[in-house]
Amino acid sequence: MQLNFSKYDRQQRLGGIPGVQATRAERSALNSAEALWITLGGATPMLLYRTRQGDAKVFMGLTSESDMTALVHKMALPNRSM
Question: How many structural domains compose the chain?
Answer without folding.
Answer: 2
